[in-house]
Amino acid sequence: AHGGPVQKKPLKGVRHILAVASGKGGVGKSTVSTNLAVGLARLGFKVGLMDADIYGPSLPTMMKVKGKPFANDDRRIIPLESYQVKCMSIGFLVEDDQPIIWRGPMVMGVVRQFLQDVAWDPLDVLIIDLPPGTGDAQLTMIQAVDLSGSVVVTTPQDVAVLDAVRGMEMFKSLNVPVIGVVENMSYLTLPDGQQIHPFGQGGGQATAERYAVPLLAKLPLDSAIREGGDQGRPVVLDHGESADALM
Amino acid sequence: AHGGPVQKKPLKGVRHILAVASGKGGVGKSTVSTNLAVGLARLGFKVGLMDADIYGPSLPTMMKVKGKPFANDDRRIIPLESYQVKCMSIGFLVEDDQPIIWRGPMVMGVVRQFLQDVAWDPLDVLIIDLPPGTGDAQLTMIQAVDLSGSVVVTTPQDVAVLDAVRGMEMFKSLNVPVIGVVENMSYLTLPDGQQIHPFGQGGGQATAERYAVPLLAKLPLDSAIREGGDQGRPVVLDHGESADALM
Ligand SMILES: Nc1ncnc2c1ncn2[C@@H]1O[C@H](COP(=O)(O)OP(=O)(O)O)[C@@H](O)[C@H]1O
Ligand SMILES: Nc1ncnc2c1ncn2[C@@H]1O[C@H](COP(=O)(O)OP(=O)(O)O)[C@@H](O)[C@H]1O
Predict the structure, then answer these.
(1) Looking at beta carbons, which residues of chain A come within 8 Å of B104?
(2) Mind listing the pLDDT tens digit for each residue in B50-102?
(3) pLDDT band at B48, cuts 50/70/90?
(4) Most buried of the four, A147, A232, B3, B8, by CB within 10 Å?
(5) Which of B162, B169, B233 should we substitute to test contact with A (largest number of A Cβ atoms within 10 Å)?
């Protein structure tokens, strides 16, 4: 009834496929995905960004891009472009305020389309912003693609480690290399320069050490990052340093 | 193949059923659910708390409760008790670090069991901590229960309103009354007493106004709240005020 597992097809003309995942929502996974994509594009790479969060697409807002995609002569869907990144999101196809009442097979149908029917190539890297969490949908999506690697985004608190570990276990069980862990909202710098830790400390490090992968970055809680997301202008365009830390 | 939609059965001996939802993860929905449950129990009500987040159960950590539930003589599952709240979570049945690789029909089977086969009664209120988001799973769960009302948890930023609206639309389309909106992480009080807004302002108010429901509370970003969650001792037990705001 589900249309069966999706075949792992390599994507023609796409050199690397990188999944960005989180064990739970709200850790800044989409923020990291969009800034990573735009940062790499600024460095000259050909980048694609696929918003695979079918239920809560954030790409249209965060990349300030909207519109109905058209098909090209080969009947493949042309991704919409923003900040030199080729983008695809279910948000381009549905109204913002309607919950997307998808049943399982329809969800996988859409993901399959995003992978196989979109004219992505040529790309150096396609970044897949997975839905938050480690459930059925995430599993099926990962199994549908030949992933070169993955990044797990987490926050510093102890309880976040449990969720991040679920993300790491998910990739491990599917034989996908984890490039590293990104700890977001690590600290907040007060006006007087003092650093405080509203979300605790150490979660990213603990997760990275447990799986012997690098802690790629500790990103601060910074209203510039949030405003970048709200305004649809990823902060890496104006504040390159934290992205370079990620590269 | 899914076992069909679940029949909306009233739960015998349970007076009110309240769903706590969010348009996206990480807004503090489970924090609000656990503190609401414990706060109401402290006021003398008979309270149940069902962790319906099958993929990322947080109840065992936040309520410091774990163990294999037993069946009673009527072959109904006895909820585990914590802080005078009857609790049920998939976390009692699986190992913490394994991603739960459920396929759709299994998920709904578990939810059905949690509703119909658990010895909840007698209860004044059963609080259902829904999975974050507004997808297929949430829809099916809401349709399975005769909900008295719901609460939508959000954060202050503009982009959060879009997600919160999806939550509101979901309840509206299913004819479930929304009791109100809770805005979490509204402000951070610095050591010198100054209030700052790391997550922006106004999202909760905007959502509440748009649907003409009350903004029930604006909860601060407070490490005591996070530590309460991490330690499994909901903050309302030691700092009753913010919960009273919710009641
Ligand atoms: N480092 C940060 N500082 C401030 N706000 C942040 C930061 N990272 C993310 N945010 C904000 O937190 C919210 C959740 O981030 P998002 O990327 O949507 O999380 P996820 O994809 O994990 O659900 C967004 O409003 C975003 O702008
Ligand atoms: N008001 C708050 N102040 C500080 N930390 C908070 C607050 N509300 C939630 N948290 C923390 O934020 C994280 C996410 O909260 P959680 O309740 O799990 O969100 P959700 O259920 O929406 O995914 C947890 O670590 C929690 O302790």
Answers:
(1) 2, 104, 136
(2) 999 887 889 999 999 999 899 888 888 999 999 999 999 988 887 766 666 65
(3) very high
(4) A147
(5) B162
